[in-house]
Design brief:
The protein is an alpha+beta fold. The chain has 3 domains: 55-170, Beta-Lactamase; 239-325, Helix Hairpins, CATH 1.10.287; 338-478, Heat Shock Protein 90, CATH 3.30.565. Helix content is 49%, strand content 17%. The chain has 11 helices and 14 strands. The protein has helices at 2-6, 10-52, 63-67, 112-119, 171-206, 208-223, 239-292, 298-325, 342-356, 375-392, 444-454, and strands at residues 74-75, 87-93, 98-101, 127-132, 138-148, 157-169, 338-341, 361-366, 370-373, 398-404, 407-411, 458-463, 469-474, 477-478. It has a 6-stranded mixed beta sheet with strand order 1-3-2-6-5-4, with helices on both faces. Strands 8-10-11-13-12 form a 5-stranded mixed beta sheet. It is rod-shaped.
């Protein structure tokens, strides 16, 4: 049943839920109404029975009969005991034998509760109960101790060992209650069906934006058109509007991501084409010289092999940079983020930079600073900054490196960067026109920006006074390492 319910469309499930909720409410109200009406009707019947037996009546014509109670109840000649409409009035002895009855059709069946009233007659308390007559008809019964008056002006007194039973048929009452139950059932059925129809209409109206969203998703899945947007009212703040805005934001992000991916593929293909073309040309030249039997001069062969090696190195570096940029922006790093001494990472990067520019003078003033980052990625970012400084520094020039209060500055004395080129220095594959003849892929500073952002810092480039460029990296941290979390040892 649950599986079948879950397989229904959402609007059908909402309509069923509304109908079920209304059915429960209507059933509760109907049942409560029926019981309340039943109680009121029975209260009215009991009140009528109390009025019928309220005042003492002369029983002088039946007292003798009570003393010698026959097996068959005698029909009473007293007006009080004669049948009044649908009332039963009868006198009952202590053993439960009905002696005098006002109804020739039948008598009310006597129960132990009626006998208990006779035994406790001095309290003059009676009982009201449901019962049947000798013909099986349902009646409402009031049993009271018998109080008689033997004459005008005499005091009413209890007649010993006798009770007065007053009853009325419940046929009309039950018919009324049955009619009420049928009416409530009919109204409840109409209410449930109407609630289901209204719930279905409301579900259709409420889920219309969801239908539009579904159509948009299906359209995107079918056409891969990420420019599709769902119209949302400016003043709409409900859940559907929030969902639509979130969907539009998601498709915008996907479209932007695909554009960046396509741009990355195009730029990577462009950058890979140059070293691959040069590499293929050099290899073909070497192959042709071997096939024709005319070897190249040793100097040319050596230069050609050095060019092949440099191109292979450039190609490997480019592939490594592409792999670095292909990682997710957040999470899933190849290394583990931890607290590291930034000055040690800068020292390691300086050793590599000095090997790449042995003719340069690199000065360093490093103060302790501890940051939370991925050590390998952070060292590569520092190496990329120093590589740029080495690449653009004149022969015999100086590079000044300083680390103070979490701010790393690298200043070279090269040609510097034009002001109109500064906004593009951290773009992927972007290279200054003056640097396109130099080796490199244009990805180094992009990797620097990404690594610094992942560590929660900032990076910037600006022209230096007197010529050159100053690269600045700020990372949050502290001059002392954080205290280690104490380890709880077992007993």
């Amino acid at each position: 049943m649950i599986r079948r319910y879950r397989s229904l469309p959402l609007r059908s499930r909402l309509a069923l839920l509304v109908a079920a909720a209304v059915a429960f409410g209507v059933a509760a109200v109907s049942v409560s109404c029926w019981f309340i009406v039943q109680g009121k009707v029975y209260e009215q019947v009991d009140s009528d029975l109390q009025k019928a037996a309220a005042r003492p009546q002369p029983y002088t014509d039946v007292l003798g009969t009570l003393d010698s109670c026959p097996q068959t109840p005698q029909a009473a000649t007293n007006d009080f005991l004669r049948t009044r409409d649908s009332y039963y009035l009868q006198l009952v002895k202590a053993d439960g034998t009905p002696c005098v009855s006002s109804n020739s059709v039948g008598t009310v069946r006597v129960t132990d509760a009626d006998k208990e009233v006779i035994r406790n007659a001095t309290s003059r308390k009676g009982i009201v109960r449901n019962g049947t007559d000798t013909n099986g008809n349902d009646v409402r019964v009031l049993t009271l101790p018998l109080v008689v008056s033997t004459g005008i002006g005499s005091e009413p007194r209890l007649y010993p060992n006798t009770a007065l039973v007053v009853a009325v048929s419940l046929k009309n009452t039950q018919n009324t209650l049955n009619d009420l139950a049928l009416l409530l059932l009919l109204v409840s059925g109409i209410g449930v069906v109407g609630a289901g129809a209204v719930g279905l209409a409301v579900a259709r109206a409420g889920l219309r934006p969801v239908d539009k969203l579904t159509e948009a998703v299906e359209h995107i899945a079918r056409t891969e058109d990420l420019t599709t947007r769902i119209p949302v009212g400016e003043d709409s703040e409900d859940e559907i509007a929030r969902l639509s805005r979130s969907f539009n934001s998601m498709t915008s992000a996907l479209a932007s991501s695909r554009e960046l991916q396509q741009q990355l593929i195009a730029d990577a293909g462009h950058e890979l084409r140059t070293p691959l073309t040069s590499l293929r040309t050099n290899i073909e030249l070497l192959t042709r010289s071997e096939e024709t039997g005319r070897p190249l001069p040793p100097e040319d062969r050596k230069a050609l092999l050095a060019s092949v090696k440099a191109q292979m190195t450039e190609l490997g570096s480019l592939i490594g940079d592409l792999q670095e940029l292909s990682r997710p922006e957040k999470g899933q790093h190849t290394g583990k983020v931890q607290v590291v001494a930034w000055e040690d990472i800068v020292e390691s990067a300086l050793r590599r930079a000095r090997l790449r520019g042995p003719e340069l003078t690199i000065t360093a003033d490093l103060q302790p600073w501890y940051v939370r980052a991925e050590p390998t990625a952070l060292e590569r970012a520092v190496v990329n900054i120093l590589d740029n400084a080495v690449k653009f520094s004149p022969e015999g020039g100086t590079i000044d490196v300083a680390l103070s209060q979490g701010v790393l500055t690298v200043r070279d004395h090269g040609p510097g960067i034009a002001a109109d080129e500064l906004p593009h220095v951290f773009d992927r594959f972007w290279r200054s026109p003056s640097a396109r003849a130099l080796p490199g892929s244009g990805l180094g500073l992009s990797i620097v920006a990404r690594t610094v952002q992942q560590a929660g810092g900032e990076v910037s480039l600006r022209p230096a006074q007197g010529g050159g460029t100053v690269a600045t990296v700020r990372l949050p941290g502290a001059p002392t390492p954080p205290p280690e979390t104490p380890q709880h040892e077992g007993p």
